[in-house]
Write a structure and sequence with these properties.
Blueprint lengths: L8 H34 L30 H5 L12 H7 L6 H25 L8 H6 L15 H9 L3 H10 L1 H4 L7 H12 L6 E15 L2 E14 L4 E15 L3 E15 L2 H23 L3 H17 L5 E13 L5 E16 L7 E16 L3 E18 L9 E23 L3 E22 L4 H12 L4 H4 L14 H9 L1 E22 L2 E22 L11 E3 L2
Antiparallel strand pairs: 1-2, 1-12, 2-3, 3-4, 4-5, 5-6, 6-7, 7-8, 8-9, 9-10, 10-11, 11-12, 12-13
Length: 571
């Protein structure tokens, strides 16, 4: 991180705290002095109370509006008049006029300004390469600039050049290190500034999720030890680039279950995602998709032929006006799980693995196909019977290779190698139980929980150079097992004998670390019965979950002198 000598922001922040303490202690002194002078003014005839220039600012003729007599407080303390009460009679003005107590809002505002400048100073320090020497005094003395106040690229080179020339060096540092993506497109700025901005902006992460909401339902049938199920879900996501994504998911599973403690299942999932520039369009599409699902159910389960025909007609009309999805996902995989009951405590564990194909036309000029493989480990602990406490951690590791869809040659079409690690800590409670006997019964449960999720993504762009393509293929064929459990963060220069992928990850890899807080709820209702010794069961589930970002960082550009990279806060 960029550093500076002879300036300690922590001690400056302490000064802000002292100013607030002083502001609080001045108030009672103000009150006491006000009362004393009011009493003195009441004991004398209407005349000038004092000829002392030191006391003149705090006294005036009784009954005369403040604005006509005493020295304005803005002249004495330099406080903007907006911080003061309006002019009133002498008795009222003494309580809020030009006395030491009137400094209270000024001191508090000064403390807030000091903290704001320290915050901006720290932001620049963390974003600048470590070897850059920053003038901390100049940065602190400069009011934080409006990072959104950058000229538009269409304003023209002359206007852009004039804007840049009018900035102080400290103001330029704020824009360069905190908003490089806005400078790299501005013609008229010095070439070296634009080159540096382009390099710094490159390492700011590719778009990531800011918030999401998902709702859905599923059904599952049991015949002996065999389980069959299907479901659907709607997901809306807000992305850091300002766009919104709406996804319709269809899924299913087929598996085996041994009692209540062990199971294995094959799962599949299909997802279509639409991308919009604003939330209103995203909400409109989600409403259309829900209506589409309703008509599809009517087509399958309508009470009469006429109802099914009408539903098919409405379904067709709605399909015609839907835009084409920008992402199409196909996933197949499996999972096995087991648990051991020990009294009221049930420890369990689940293993899963999936293979996915993601076709993207988000960039119409360069469509891509992503092949993804991941594994999941989920240890858990449940305590209780009717009311249960659920604790668990989900660790997911993913390897992805992105290929240029316009190039069918697998030896030359790799554009990106990506590693993703997700760690989700879950805490929840479940209330539920069963009624009935061994042959016939009903069951139900409601679960609500909270989660904290941390996602680390290492995105390594691969060029068309044959050596880079070969290195990517070699790495993908035999990735290090540890890279899934914990991706290597390329924050240090690789060793001289390091493989090409490690060098590319350091030199051009885009790395993000994003944290989310979420909540989820789930309602299950089911029934079971036994016919000639064979158990039959049915279970319906309605679920809802959402999360939002609470912290995000990216790995900054390599330092030009040391080669080291450091995480930089976003936002």
């Amino acid at each position: 991180m960029g550093g500076f000598q002879g300036f300690d922001p922590a001690r400056v922040r302490d000064l802000a705290g002292h100013l607030e303490s002083v502001a609080g202690s001045v108030v009672p002194m103000h009150s006491q002095l006000s009362q004393l002078l009011q009493d003195a003014a009441a004991d004398v005839a209407p005349q000038q109370v004092t000829r002392s220039p030191e006391l003149q600012p705090v006294v005036d003729r009784p009954g005369v509006p403040m604005a006509t007599g005493a020295i304005p407080i803005s002249r004495v303390y330099g406080i903007p008049t907006g911080y003061l009460p309006g002019p009133r009679t002498q008795g009222e003005a003494l309580a809020g006029g030009p006395l030491p107590g009137s400094v209270d809002p000024f001191l508090r505002q000064t403390a807030a300004d000091i903290r704001s400048r320290c915050d901006r100073l720290e932001q620049v320090r963390k974003a600048a390469p470590p070897s850059v020497e920053l003038d901390a005094g100049a940065l602190f003395g400069t009011e934080p600039v409006d990072l959104n106040g950058v000229p538009k690229p269409t304003d023209g080179p002359e206007k852009n050049a004039a804007w840049w020339a009018g900035l102080t060096p400290a103001q330029r540092e704020q824009y360069l290190y905190l908003k490089p993506e806005a400078l790299e497109t501005l013609k008229g700025l010095p070439d070296d500034v634009r080159r540096q901005a382009t390099r710094l902006a490159y390492f700011k992460v590719v778009p990531y999720k800011i918030a999401s909401h998902e709702s859905g339902g599923s059904t599952k049938f049991t015949l002996g030890i065999v389980e069959l199920g299907d479901g659907f879900a709607f997901r809306t996501e807000q992305i850091s680039d300002g766009s919104y994504r709406v996804t319709l998911i269809s899924n299913g599973q087929a598996g085996l279950k041994a009692g209540t403690k062990a199971s294995a299942a094959f799962k599949y999932e299909f997802g279509d995602t639409w991308v919009f520039r604003n939330k209103a369009e995203a909400d409109k599409l989600q409403a259309d998709l829900k209506e589409l699902l309703m008509w599809r159910m009517q087509m399958s389960h309508g009470m009469s032929d006429g109802a099914r025909i009408y539903a098919a007609r409405q379904y067709g009309k709605l399909m015609e006006r839907l835009p084409d999805p920008r992402l199409k996902v196909k996933t197949a995989g499996g999972e096995v799980s087991g648990a051991i009951g020990v009294g009221s405590v049930t420890p369990g564990i689940k293993f899963g693995a999936n293979f996915s194909t993601i076709t993207s036309t988000i960039d119409p000029g360069r469509p891509s196909v992503t092949q993804s493989r991941d594994f999941t480990v989920e240890p858990s602990l449940t305590r209780g019977n009717v009311v249960k406490g659920d604790f668990g951690t989900v660790v997911n590791g993913t390897i992805q290779v992105v290929r240029d869809k316009n190039n069918p040659d697998p030896n030359t079409n790799i554009t990106t190698v990506r590693l993703i690690q997700t760690v989700e800590n879950k805490l929840g409670g479940t209330f539920g139980g069963e009624l009935g006997g061994k042959k016939v019964g009903v069951s139900g449960s409601y679960r609500e929980g909270r989660s904290h999720t941390h996602v680390v993504t290492v995105n390594v762009p691969i060029g068309a150079d044959p050596a880079e393509q070969a290195a990517a293929r070699k790495w993908l064929n035999a990735p290090a097992p540890a890279s899934l459990a914990s991706p290597v963060i390329p924050d240090k220069p690789p060793a001289p004998d390091a493989d090409l992928i490690s060098r590319l990850a350091h030199d051009r890899g885009q790395v993000s670390a994003v944290s989310y807080r979420g909540k989820a709820s789930e309602l299950k209702l089911g029934g079971k019965f036994t016919v000639e010794g064979i158990p039959f069961g049915f279970e319906a589930t309605a679920a809802e979950k959402g999360d939002h970002v609470v912290g995000q960082q990216y790995l900054g550009a390599p330092d030009p002198k040391t080669g080291r990279r450091a995480f930089v806060p976003l936002g």
